[in-house]
Amino acid sequence: MSLYRKPRSPFWHFDFQWRGHRFHGSTKCTIRREAEKIEAIEREKAKQFVAQTEAARTSLRLDDIAGRYWHEHAQHLAAAASAEVYLALLINFFGKDKLITEIRDDDVTRLVAWRRGHRARKNNPDNISIVSPYTVNHTTEQLRKVFTRAKLWGVCFQHEPTWPKHMLPVPSERVRELNEDEADRLDTHVRDDYAPLFEFARATGWRLRECLLCWTEVDWTTGQIVKHGKGGKRITRRITSDLRALLWPLRGHHPVFVFTYIPTRSNISDEKLARRPITYGGLQSYWQRLRKRAGVEGFRFHDYRHDFGTKLLRRERNLRLVQKAMHHSDIKTTLRYAHVLDEEVGDALERGAKSRTKSRTRLKVM
After folding, report:
1. Considering the entire predicted model, what is its pTM?
2. CA 140 to CA 162: how far, in whole Å?
3. pLDDT of residue 128
4. Contacts of 219 (CB under 8 A, 6+ apart)
């Protein structure tokens, strides 16, 4: 009998096997006829579970799915550290034993609400604020990526969440350009050992993480810098004369990393004063101090990228060229810099107005 009662429970329980998998639990019913209906539902769910597991050849537990996603894909991404954090958050919220096929819209809604209540520590430990909509959306997007990968493994979702409706509205990213006075102040206060990295960021428009080069990514023979950027995308930059003049003197400072710094604390022994690689976190901390000393407000390190794109478009007047230089997969992303062409558009409209005025004058004369 698959239905039975426990001595100290008023409810009927089910216990059956299907293709080597055991399924058991309480029906939450005290009447046998109602318990039989619940058991029939559980049997149907069990058949679907086994069929999907066999088709996917993987466990449907979120912990197992996330583990496989990490080992086969996420750990090889440029942003692997972030992916690991978001996967841990998902497992913390849903639990290790949650079946991915059971995650529906209501579950994602609760995830978003839970994530919106989290606090984020900025570089200043005393500055604690609510996480941004960007961060919440990144969490939802990570879950969507796990779903997408699971479908490649053969998992079939009958009630996959409608992802767009769970994305929070975010303000359009502003484009901040560095003016000459701000650039001079930053150049005046930057340390000599950090200066090459900032010059590289301004010359390439690469993101902070992309600027942390290894010598294996600098090919003097082909004259190219090749690196994996955002989303694992392969990005390249030709070693122009100015980049060569910037990078060539750095050879020999470190066997692996291109950009390094010299520790300045007086309590460090002489043998530890050798150059150390500039890290992501270290650069963020130094950038906050540098910006404060230089008196530059509202300019993030990422704005070096916006500064590069804005100035390049103003000089070349070619959106496609800027799109390629900044490695944008969609030109809609590049269009955020189109404001620099407003003056050119205004001149064209003015020329059109003058042309129409001349035409009307000729018609009156005739």
Report:
1. 0.60
2. 11
3. 59
4. 225, 226
